[in-house]
Amino acid sequence: MTTLLRVETLTKRFGGFTALSDVNLNVAKGERLGLIGPNGSGKTTLINCISGVVQIDQGAIAFENRDISALAAYKRAKKGIARTFQIPRPFHSMSVIENLMVPLEYIVHGLVDGSNRNAVHAEASELLHRMRLSDRTNAPAGQLSQVELRKLELARAVAARPRLLICDEAMAGLATKEVHEILDILMELNASGITIIMVEHILQAVMRFSQRIVCLTAGRIISDGAPVDVMANPEVRRAYLGS
Ligand SMILES: Nc1ncnc2c1ncn2[C@@H]1O[C@H](COP(=O)(O)OP(=O)(O)OP(=O)(O)O)[C@@H](O)[C@H]1O
């Protein structure tokens, strides 16, 4: 087992409030990890720390055996860490494919002069196909449904060709059929070699997706293991399921 991501004794404070306390987490290359916990337990803060949206106060984060604790978010993205946001914010007046071509041109290919637009267009089309969004290629992003927005958000993250993809509630508010559609896409991305951390409240989805589940409560990991074992843990049931 090769470790892709290592989080060591991570502590994050907001003023006098400790949002994460002494968190240790290893994620293996190729793994599908579910991150659960009650509202306010620190899930988003943890992925913000990993992706570099916020800086940590103590501890260390290593990706592919390199310390990335002090790196800016865009540098972590370049190293292969991508994440989706709970609330997708595409450019509404631009078409779906244009929303993908912008990051592909400027971030991935480093083009600023519009050269090689055909190759970028082809890559964006291929991404939309993988996200089952081809039929909305030329639609303005502002006209997308919830599930289509989630797919575009995933496509945007995958455009950066990540080795680690962190999904923050990619299925919130979706119908059951749509949840399964997103899960199928995530499974395919994982099968193509992308390690995935999924933050999710929909337990059925987390159970179907995850090879391993980590449960956070009040900024601490209270359980880490096989999904059935974590769900059977009395502390998890009390904290997360209220039983
Ligand atoms: N920028 C911030 N400033 C101050 N407090 C913050 C900040 N970000 C998060 N917090 C606090 O840290 C705690 C953890 O929040 P976080 O959003 O990480 O929880 P979560 O588990 O993702 O919750 P949810 O499931 O509701 O999204 C909460 O008490 C929250 O209010």
Mean pLDDT: 93
Low-pLDDT segments: none
> Judging from the principal axes of the Cα atoms, what is the shape?
globular
Bound molecules: adenosine-5'-triphosphate
Instruction: Work out the strand percent.
Output: 25-35%
Count the strands?
A: 10
Task: Characterize the main sheet.
Answer: 6 strands, mixed
- Provide the succession of SSEs: EEEHEEHEHHHEHEHEEHH
Give me the number of helical elements. Answer: 9
- Read across the widest sheet, the strand sequence of neighbours is 6-7-8-3-9-10
Distance between the termini: 35 Å
The Rg value, from CA coordinates, equals: 18 Å
Structural class: alpha/beta
| Percentage of residues in helical conformation | 25-40%
Description:
Keywords: ATP-binding, Nucleotide-binding, Transport. InterPro entries: AAA+_ATPase, ABC_AA/LPS_Transport, ABC_transporter-like_ATP-bd, BCA_ABC_TP_C, P-loop_NTPase. This protein has 243 residues and is of the alpha/beta class. Helix content is 39%, strand content 26%. It contains nine helices and ten strands. Strands 6-7-8-3-9-10 form a six-stranded mixed β-sheet, sandwiched between helices. It has a four-stranded antiparallel β-sheet with strand order 2-1-4-5, with helices on one face. β7 (164-168), α6 and β8 (195-199) form a beta-alpha-beta unit. α3 packs across α4 (117-130), α3 runs parallel beside α5 (146-159) and α4 packs across α5 (146-159). The longest helix is centred in the last third of the chain and has 16 residues, at 176-191. The protein is globular and about 55 Å long. The chain starts with a strand and ends with a helix. 41% of the residues are buried. Bound molecules: adenosine-5'-triphosphate (ATP). Adenosine-5'-triphosphate binds next to β2 and α1. The site of adenosine-5'-triphosphate has 11 residues, from β2 and α1.
